[in-house]
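Worked example 2:
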Amino acid sequence: MQSQSLKDLIREGLLELKIPSALDYVGAFDLYRTELQKWNRVHNITSITEDREIVIKHFLDSLLYLRALPSGRYTFCDVGSGGGFPGLPLAIVSPEAEVALLEPSRKRVAFLRQMRRLLGLNNIEIIDCKAEDLAESEFDVVVTRATFSISDLIKKAGHLIKEGGFLVLSKGPKTEEEISALDSRIDFEVIKCSLPFSDSERNLIRVKSLEIRR
């Protein structure tokens, strides 16, 4: 797929997700895609390597998280950010948010720093450690696309959230099975989303009560 048609796909996806000022971000996402492909050939940043799949399954899938996030100024931490998902796409379209990308892999941290520099994203801090090794913090929201269970994410990252904050993670077909195993004290809601240009459905789990986090 040529660069122009990829840009068209990015633009159409952003518009379908009703991203404010969507057309302003097409160039940033195309640069992100190009750089990810370049790094991936040497450093294996992501297992998704086809351009169209990167746009849909990384960029647009990450932006679905906006359905569960507040508007305006807020802080959030992306736990196990990897190649920047979902935190970096969210930071691109939410310049008013203060974003921490938490990632222990050195090669991925180097990639994230390169993307921060190339995209001029001054709202991003990159932290090279695991969530459980980070001191207690005061984020409004913690997000992840890593393969944590809901309970594991609460235990690993619950200490990073301020009073009144919440966790957001994305789950697929086995959502009900995982929810049924949760501690009864956990307060959560499920936001169902459709991923553009695919038949995939996503369940965003927003966890609002963290009594078992310690």
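The chain has one domain: 3-207. The helical segments are 3-16, 26-43, 51-63, 87-93, 106-119, 150-157, 175-180.
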